[in-house]
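Quick bug: Protein translocase subunit SecY output formatted oddly.
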Amino acid sequence: MNFINTLRDIFKIEELKEKILLTLGLIAVYRFMAAVPLPGIDPTQLAELKNNTDGGLLGLLNAFTGGAFARASVMALGIMPYISASIVVQLMGIAVPYLQKLQKDGESGRKKITQITRWLTILITLVQGPTYITFIKTQMGLPESAFLVGGATFWISSMILLTAGTIFAMWLGERITDKGVGNGISLLITVGIIANFPVAFLQEVVSKTEQGGGGIMMILIELIVWFVVILLTVLLVTAVRKIAVQYARRTAVTNIKDVDGARQYIPLKLNAAGVMPIIFAQAIMFLPVALGQKYPVLNSLTDINGLWYNVIFAILIIVFSYFYTAITIPTNKMAEDLKRSNGFVPGYKPGEETANYLDSVLSKITFPGSLFLAALSILPAIIVQFGVTQNWALFYGGTSLIIMVGVAIDTIQQINSYLLNSRYDGLMKTGNSNRKSLK
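Here's what came back:
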């Protein structure tokens, strides 16, 4: 009943309703474009490409693009080049003085960084595009008859369309962020992941209803485990360590009375790095796939369900959790800002001592957070050992689940803020009208 009332409240707010409808419309456009194949490829002969991207690391890439990777679509690269460019720019911001200056320049600096990210996205697409075309032509077992056009014509047209597809996806994401609800880039990735959900679940149902598969009872047990994992993921995403902050007593000029110092909190997230450690770790784990032909010893690291793959994967996630948290949570700057605003952490001197304390707390909570993140990331490989199909197991953890949970929480919070502001405005209007009637 509360859910129905919330929906009614949402559609009573004209601005919020328009934002939601715009978001849904742009997502629909993205999904439609993901089904459009590159010119010069026969879409009826892509079965081999889909089979070769079913599971494994290529299956992860296909999941992030909503199946566009296996369809040889104009959106085959999806929004991934933009994410890669964003990561590169963020990391360069640590060492490049020009980018550091832009980060401090407020809105104007942010716009310049966004522009740099866009140009870098195009450059990355121009590198990834030929790699993808070469890959589907030489490595995926497609028959020669699948390519209706050959030579330079196919290469040039495919490069132009793959680049245009990525730029269009980037534009859609930015429009959703500016004019719609939620983070547009994250929403596009989430929608792509969810697009694989019905097929993955249907495959699991068919597998379990076959003779010896366990039947409906096994499916119910898997769903219960899945919901428990989702709840644990929500806890990981939302868990924070609150650092109490006290502000100096001030004298209110209006009534010449002392006002007690306000007590607030600095929320330090248990998983401050989000999904970035997983993305970094997966990027490195793609190297064995690229080098496997030259160095056969690395072939054991291409199986995402293998022991050594997951051991190395988990270690990399823990390492990158510390690394990314260190570069994105500037405890020194937090301590200086606190000092300038006459605030302090009780029991610690403002400045360096406070910074050291914040850094110590952050290091301590990052350790269990990184362990939890690593365990969640390798959970799909463990689930597979119990007879779960590969595509369905991907929804039990890893980047897919964390992104979906994070985006869902962020979007719900934005909608709730609109609803709260609407109720507040309604109370203000009611109060004004009551005062007018009393006069």
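Actually, after a second look the formatting is fine. Confidence is low (pLDDT under 50) at residues 250-262. Closing.
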